[in-house]
Write a structure and sequence with these properties.
Layout (H helix, E strand, L loop, with lengths): L2 E3 L5 E5 L3 E7 L5 E8 L22 H4 L27 E4 L10 E9 L19 E9 L4 E10 L4 E10 L5 E6 L2 E5 L4 E9 L2 E9 L3 E6 L12 E6 L9 E6 L5 E7 L5 E7 L6 E3 L4 E3 L3 E6 L2 H17 L12 E3 L1 H4 L5 H14 L3 E4 L21 H4 L3 H10 L3 E6 L3 E3 L3 H5 L18 E3 L5 H18 L3 E4 L21 H19 L4 E4 L9 H4 L4 E3 L6 H11 L8 E2 L1 E3 L12 H9 L4 E3 L7 H23 L1 E4 L8 E7 L5 E8 L10 E2 L9 E6 L20 E3 H6 L2 E2 L9 E8 L1
Parallel strand pairs: 22-23, 22-32, 23-24, 24-27, 27-28, 28-29, 29-30, 31-32
Antiparallel strand pairs: 1-2, 2-3, 3-4, 5-10, 6-7, 7-8, 8-9, 9-20, 9-21, 10-19, 11-18, 12-13, 12-15, 14-17, 15-16, 16-21, 17-18, 25-26, 33-34, 34-35, 35-40, 36-39, 37-38, 37-40
Bound molecules: (2R,3S,4R,5S)-2-(hydroxymethyl)piperidine-3,4,5-triol.
Length: 748
Amino acid sequence: MSILINQENGTITLHTDHTSYQMKADEIGTLLHCYYGARVPEEDLSYAVFRMNRGFSGNPYEKAAADRAYSLDTLPQELGTFGAGDYRISAVKIRHEGGDQALRLRFVKAEILPGKYALSALPASYEDGNEGCETLLVTMEDPEGSVRAELFYGVFPKKDVITRALRITNTGDAEKTLLKAAPLSLDFLEGDYDLIGFYGKWAKERVPERTVLRHGVQSFGSVRGGSSHHYNPSAILCDSSATEDYGRAWGFSFVYSGEFLLEAEKDKIDETRITLGIHPDDFSWPLAPGESFTSPEVLMTFSDQGISGISRRFHDFIRKNIVRGFWRDRRRPVLLNNWEATYFDFTGEKLVDIAKTARDLGVEMFVLDDGWFGHRNDDTCALGDWDPNEEKLQMSIAELGGKIRDLGLRFGIWFEPETISEDSDLYRAHPDWAVRIPGRLPDLSRSELILDMSRVDVQDYILRKMSSVIESAGATYVKWDFNRSVCDKYSHALPPSRQGEMAHRFVLGTYRVLEGLLSRFPELLIEGCSGGGGRFDCGMLYYTPQIWCSDNTDPIERLTIQYGTSFIYPVNTMGAHVSASPNHQTGRSTPMETRTAVAMSGTFGYELDPTKLLPAEQEEIRRGIGVFKELYETLQQGDYYRLTRPDDTGCTVWESVRKDRKEAVLTAVFDHVRANYTPVYVRLRGLKPDGKYKVSPVPGYRSADPRVPADSLIKEPVLSGSSLMNQGIFIPHYTKEYQSWQIIFSEV
Ligand code: DGJ
């Protein structure tokens, strides 16, 4: 039993193997949040909730005469609400029919439901086989305001993850408007914490930033339609003393791909509250009598083994309980994408030539990127016209797909379903399908307008067009791109009073099309993309097992991008390709083996024209694909450890340990050369202390370099896990700029 409702002391406790979470309704029905942290025994933890009259923190009417120490403004609560005496950040705000906005919820009941709850029309985590999941459903009501709030908690005991979703119902007899709905609202009794968020921009996504949680409110979010390059809908809160491996940390990730807001507040008495939900700026949802609104869910995890403990828990969870379907547990094909190889300049025959050479080198899938449809020869036109351009291809898409398959390759194809060009037949036929405010010139981005995915007729059109291309091309992979932020939000299908629904309905529409594609083509592999990693979140990962991590394919820049992404997301979700050198984004030249080593800690593929490579470089591709396949289990399904921080030492080092701990792979990349170099020492993690590990370079790789013979990597070629984890090793010196090493530790 992972959920315990104690009738005697009123506590409701959720247990996972290593964590506990507790709440309790107090004497006037306020649902107190008592605890979330390391697993503790069955005790009433509300003893630690300290009450005192603090002045200017008011008292609920029924308490005011007798107990001025009781205030909603200071009590830790399960769900922070707006306007009725709690002045901290709120998770729920609703405008009643009278125009007032106060909400005060009182506990009604708690029920235990078998299994993990599901959410209709929304992505949500699910139980992987028989994991012993349970759902706690807590009902609260505001009788004066006629509102019911239901909190759903999904408990994954073996994964140490608890999820939360929220349903708000209008129980009155007049329409109300929901203004804010955040499924995460978590209170802490004290507040010496740091907050780690992930900011970024196009070509530099998910840079971790750790700041002291000071008094006041810290927040980040997105009002860009999608979750965005600029802030990821995830965060880690940790003890100010926590490091990668030590200290307490709490991780949060939103299973949602739209606009979000994360807020964290340290208040007047150092209590801390963190909320995460749909961004309220573009959200208002009318609720007629009896109607409900259900929020997306938030994942929560706790680790007392530092920040990397959070990462590994999320990695395991996302791999098995978010990603689903045919490709969840399968090795994804090594692909070659033609974008950086040709951009818009190709014919069918040129593509087949590239594919043939790629096939000869071991590539397993050819992906045709942008430019195959309508009259699209640059990025100014034709989005929405999803009919193959046979004149440009000089063949039909069915013929092209056939030729690729005849080579023994899978065929994949690019779409950007949620956008429309002004210069397109679709726009000329349906101008009202574009997101535009009547009477206002729209903001264009990459010459694109947004297609109104909140409309069911638009969703059906896109699903039909995509399905027909996938079918006739025999495609088994789709790259789903989205190349701009959304503004000028307006749907011609909604009345003025309901425009506040548009942003959320847009996301629901995208999810509906993705679900439609997967139910028509259950073996289709969809790779998410938004100008690189502009929509990298657990909502998309529910439909698209991998997401193009960044348009920046420079391996040195990728060190930071993949490092930041790894705080929450596993390696096998990060789209990563070996591209040409000099790199197209930075102009930097790097060795092929470094590009290969970095892409291997991602989904692994190529994005270059192999027909233009020297034979030695082609040989490197053949070797790289072989190494990737050999190390697949360890790199893609193992436990991931960040051993250094990019920029700290000039050498970024990470380690993947196979789940049975019989093999580990260490990758080290130097990001600049220095004279009189200070050696970089790292201590390995996750090995068996008593195990003996043979230390060797990746086969057929370093030993070929006469300047660094294999046995100089380390003086003792067999060492105990204990020595490797305590004494550590030094990373062998570089012999050239941007050198990398991959070292294997295999149990003997
Ligand atoms: C942005 C993507 O991230 C690129 O990989 C490529 O598909 C282009 N769009 C095509 O327009």
